């Protein structure tokens, strides 16, 4: 059994074929696909998609790259949606939230301040409801960690991790797992492959970020969750393990940190 801990299954690139893509992944042994929201506009969409896909679960949050268009009132809408979702067994986390300092206009001035405001307010929501978070950490690990030390949440996943070993250790100490996916499959991605090889296996979960971050053999085509087993095989090669060992370990890790993941995925 494999788990894709981060997949934007509702993305327009899938051209209305999201359920077929989820079913294809299930045929490849992907028992669960975590579908994060990115903005108020798709809260209902990801929830409905998770209900329709046999292997779908979802998270609710406001993505840092959507913060520029967000209104403060959206945080209250998020709170209401989270409160309603607590009784839904397919709701698993707050996400995707975080900070993006890769895009130049987002890393300075009012937009940077607005990002940090939305990030910290969503951390407080996760703390209040004792929910894990799915974190966007692009070029922002240190500031992400600064706020996590102050606003303690029940762990989560640092999605598409590409930081230092020291940053990785701090995330682990704070109860987080680190997401690895298609970027790890490129031979020239030396730092990511070194992290994937040398970090404790107990700290690693697998993800696609589909339709983004396609693996080397698929790039530049859109990524899909059915690629998780083959991505997992790359991790197995890097660590001199069998694919079955990696599937078992990374799925266990995902369940440890996303404790609301439904038990029926074992079937």
Describe what you observe in this structure:
It contains nine helices and eight strands. It is α/β, with parallel strands linked by helices and 267 residues long. It has a single domain, classed as Metal-dependent hydrolases (TIM Barrel). Strands 1-2-3-4-5-6-7-8 form an eight-stranded parallel beta sheet. The radius of gyration is 17 Å and the shape is globular. The N and C termini lie close together (10 Å). The model has no long low-confidence stretch (mean pLDDT 96).
Average pLDDT score: 96
Strand content: 5-15%
Shape: globular
- Structural class by secondary-structure content: alpha/beta
Adjacency order of strands in the biggest sheet: 1-2-3-4-5-6-7-8
Indicate the radius of gyration in whole angstroms: 17 Å
- How many β-strand runs? 8
Q: Termini separation (Å)? A: 10 Å
Unreliable stretches (pLDDT < 50, length at least 5) are none
Write a compact overview of the structure shown.
The protein is of the alpha/beta class. The protein is 41% helix and 15% strand.
């Amino acid at each position: 059994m494999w788990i894709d801990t981060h997949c934007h299954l509702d993305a327009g690139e899938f051209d209305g074929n999201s359920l077929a893509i989820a079913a294809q992944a299930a045929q490849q042994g992907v028992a669960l696909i975590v579908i994060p929201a990115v903005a108020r506009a798709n809260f209902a969409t990801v929830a409905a998609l998770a209900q329709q896909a046999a292997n779908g679960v979802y998270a609710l949050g406001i993505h840092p790259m959507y913060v520029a268009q967000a209104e403060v009132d959206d945080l209250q809408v998020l709170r209401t949606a989270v409160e309603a979702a607590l009784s839904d067994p397919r709701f698993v986390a707050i996400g995707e939230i975080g900070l993006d300092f890769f895009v130049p206009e987002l890393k300075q001035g009012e937009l940077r301040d607005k990002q940090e405001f939305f990030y910290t307010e969503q951390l407080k929501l996760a703390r209040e409801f004792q929910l894990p978070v799915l974190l966007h950490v692009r070029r922002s690990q240190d500031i992400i960690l600064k706020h996590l030390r102050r606003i303690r949440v029940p762990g989560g996943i640092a999605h598409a991790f590409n930081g230092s070993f020291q940053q990785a250790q701090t995330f682990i100490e704070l109860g987080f797992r680190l997401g690895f996916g298609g970027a790890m499959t490129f031979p020239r991605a030396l730092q990511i492959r070194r992290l994937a090889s040398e970090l404790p296996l107990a700290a690693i979960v697998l993800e696609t970020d589909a339709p983004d971050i396609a693996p080397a053999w698929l790039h530049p085509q859109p990524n899909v969750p059915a690629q998780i087993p083959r991505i997992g095989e790359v991790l197995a090669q890097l660590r001199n393990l069998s694919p079955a060992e990696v599937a078992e370990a990374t799925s266990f890790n995902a369940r440890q940190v996303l404790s609301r993941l439904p038990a029926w995925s074992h079937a």
